[in-house]
Amino acid sequence: DTAVSQTPKYLVTQMGNDKSIKCEQNLGHDTMYWYKQDSKKFLKIMFSYNNKELIINETVPNRFSPKSPDKAHLNLHINSLELGDSAVYFCASSLLGADSGNTIYFGEGSWLTVV
Amino acid sequence: GENVEQHPSTLSVQEGDSAVIKCTYSDSASNYFPWYKQELGKRPQLIIDIRSNVGEKKDQRIAVTLNKTAKHFSLHITETQPEDSAVYFCAASLRNTDKLIFGTGTRLQVFP
After folding, report:
1. Is there a cis peptide before residue B82, judged by omega within 30 degrees of 0?
2. What is the CA radius of gyration of chain A?
3. Residue A64, Cβ neighbours under 10 Å: how many?
4. A with B: how many residue pairs have Cβ under 8 Å apart?
5. Which of A115, B40, B55, B60 is most buried by a 10 A CB count?
6. Which residues of chain A neighbour B44 with C-beta distances below 8 Å?
7. How far is B25 from A85, CA to CA, in rounded Å?
8. pLDDT tens across A79-114, in order?
9. Residue B42: its chain A contacts at CB < 8 A?
10. CB B72 within 8 A of CB B33
């Protein structure tokens, strides 16, 4: 009955590999996000989707490509992984956009380590 | 561009004391200000929020105040307990966007 679930929770991979993180929410929310939290704990938005449509695309390398097959899923694919990609990636969702004052619910995070 | 500054970066208090964390934002169009608590190895979770048409909001030991003129808002935790130890993030949303800008976090340690 987890509200926002993402897999895998831990991922260790070599530089240059391609990997995906999957996210699903069962809250019936229209908006989903990917946030990146680096080693200094800074939380930065990467992408936002509303009902499968890309709304926010921050200054993120083209190697990062989100895909939303339906409004309950938002996956993140990363090509040619680099050491600097090591971070915790949080999927999140909200009923409407953040400016509507709706609570953003975070998934448990995916710890990505690139070696 | 939009920016949210948060102070202090670390805060140590004795159990039972109060803790105050302050944030300032740059965009006067911001209208929603949530606070998140993140325990070690866990996800950020909303603990309280306030909208731009309200000056203060309280929930048991936690209160948030907003000064729109000065563009700053604060989190107040009274009668702190060891389980309050965590990283706290303030955030501000931008009108007509889906963007929530987070502060840099405050690591709160409550000593028994």
Report:
1. no
2. 13
3. 18
4. 66
5. B55
6. 43, 90, 106
7. 28
8. 999 999 999 999 999 887 655 667 889 999 999 999
9. 108
10. no
